[in-house]
């Protein structure tokens, strides 16, 4: 799978999601990045909620994930890349739809996460994994 | 045992305080403890307090809906209290409005409503 070019800004944190507690730990790190930019509560809440969905997907469906957080102070943006080496998503368009789930979730995770952020892109290759990049403005 | 949620019986009402780091392995245990204690104590109602939660994602939303469903089946009306404004706004955008879950502004308000329905 091709690697995404690095987002603008400087590295803030890098975490590995291997167990459930890591989802919590990683989304807290995203919250800290938003705090660093002095984000309003609603903007912080939106991004942290969106990444929580994505991180949990990375753990449950991807078998674990790597998270890279980048801080763009000039543009007041927090960028989050979440990469897993799971089975990949067969039909991305379908996966983005509300109501779709292959697991026990509510099927609102991916589409919902996209609505909550400024920037959302997802790349998936069957048998190789899935990369999600999100960004929220502080 | 779950450390991610507390159960307290107050004035015949079962209070459930959900912590921010609740995870999948805690849920079945929490459901089990809640159902058993409601049954054992004959609690008149359940109040789920989410004021500790900085965010509610679809995972935690599902937990809340399940707990409320258990309460309803046990004839123990369930109220959700303490949701932060930013959390409510975000949940609506996620498309998760929890239509089956009754809400109250705060614990006091929930207790008043539960007393009124007896």
From TrEMBL, chain A:
SUPFAM superfamilies membership: ATPase domain of HSP90 chaperone/DNA topoisomerase II/histidine kinase (SSF55874)
Keywords assigned by UniProt, alphabetized: Kinase, Transferase
Record domain Histidine kinase/HSP90-like ATPase: where: 44-134
One of the record's GO molecular function terms: kinase activity
Stored InterPro entries: HATPase_C_sf, HATPase_dom
Name of one Pfam family that matches: HATPase_c
Entry protein name: Serine/threonine-protein kinase RsbT
TrEMBL record, chain B:
Pfam families the UniProt entry points to: STAS
Domain STAS span(s) in chain numbering: 3-114
PANTHER family assigned to the protein according to its UniProt record, in alphabetical order: RSBT ANTAGONIST PROTEIN RSBS, RSBT ANTAGONIST PROTEIN RSBS-RELATED
Protein name: RsbT antagonist protein RsbS
Organism of origin: Allosediminivita pacifica
Taxon lineage: Bacteria, Pseudomonadati, Pseudomonadota, Alphaproteobacteria, Rhodobacterales
């Amino acid at each position: 799978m091709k690697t995404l070019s690095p987002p603008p800004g400087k590295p803030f944190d890098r975490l590995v999601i291997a167990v459930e507690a890591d989802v919590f730990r990683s989304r807290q790190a995203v919250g800290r990045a938003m705090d660093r930019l002095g984000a309003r509560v609603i903007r912080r809440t939106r991004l942290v909620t969106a990444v929580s969905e994505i991180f949990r997907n990375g753990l449950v469906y991807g078998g674990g994930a790597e998270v890279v957080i980048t801080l763009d102070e000039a543009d007041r943006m927090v960028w989050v890349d979440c990469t897993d080496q799971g089975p990949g998503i067969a039909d991305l368009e379908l996966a983005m739809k509300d109501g779709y789930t292959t697991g026990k979730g509510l099927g609102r995770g991916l589409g919902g996460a996209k609505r909550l952020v400024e920037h959302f892109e997802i790349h998936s290759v069957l048998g190789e994994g899935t990369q999600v990049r999100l960004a929220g403005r502080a | 045992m779950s450390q991610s949620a507390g159960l307290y019986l107050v004035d015949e009402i079962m209070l459930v305080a959900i912590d921010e780091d609740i995870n999948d392995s805690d849920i079945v245990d929490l459901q089990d403890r809640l159902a058993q204690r409601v049954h054992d104590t004959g609690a008149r109602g359940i109040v789920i307090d989410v004021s500790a939660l900085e965010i509610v994602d679809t995972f935690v939303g599902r937990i809340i809906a399940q707990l409320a469903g258990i309460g309803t089946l046990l004839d123990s009306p369930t109220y959700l209290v303490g949701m932060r404004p930013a959390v409510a706004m975000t949940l609506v955008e996620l498309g998760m409005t929890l239509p089956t879950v009754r809400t109250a502004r705060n614990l006091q308000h929930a207790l008043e409503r539960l007393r009124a329905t007896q």
